[in-house]
Amino acid sequence: MTSRFTELTFDCRDPARLAAFWCEVLDLKVIDRTEGKVEIGSWVPTVEDVRARQMPPTLLFIRVPEGRTVKNRLHLDISPIDGSTEDEVTRLLDLGATKTDVGQGEGRSWVVMADPEGNEFCVLRTLAPQT
Q: Are 117 and 18 in contact (CB under 8 A)?
């Protein structure tokens, strides 16, 4: 018997706004939208596909009445694939992210940021080809 990692869920105030932010960050698309819920991904899951093999999880944004109150215990790490880490941080700031301090200190190889609702994530080293 086994299970599959199929979704990562974010509680949030504005599912549409947060889903739009993460679609831009990760080049994903909206695959389902209902009242108070938006799901994004790189594919549309089917039971057959999920049962056959491990696929990338979708991100699900669900409206909740309360805001975030403490540091995340779980966060996403992202790696730029076609530019520098610094360029990606600038792009994310333009999309509405902010730099944040969670006690990481100076001189780290990653940058801690927060999405428009304050959920932390890290921008890691670039994976872009080096010329």
A: yes
The string over 62-92, giving b where at least 16 C-beta atoms fall within 10 Å of a residue's C-beta and e elsewhere, is: eeeeeebeeeeeeebebebeeeebeebbeeb
Per the DSSP assignment, residues forming a β-bridge with 121 are 76, 113
How far apart CA 31 and CA 95 sit, in angstroms, is 21
Q: pLDDT tens-digit profile of 30-76?
A: 999 999 999 999 998 889 988 898 899 999 999 999 877 877 788 99
- Alpha carbons 79 and 81: distance in angstroms, whole number: 6
Domain ranges of the chain: 7-63, 76-123
Residue whose pair of structure tokens reads 């799901």 in the numeric block: 39
Reply yes or no on domain 7-63 having CATH 3.10.450: no
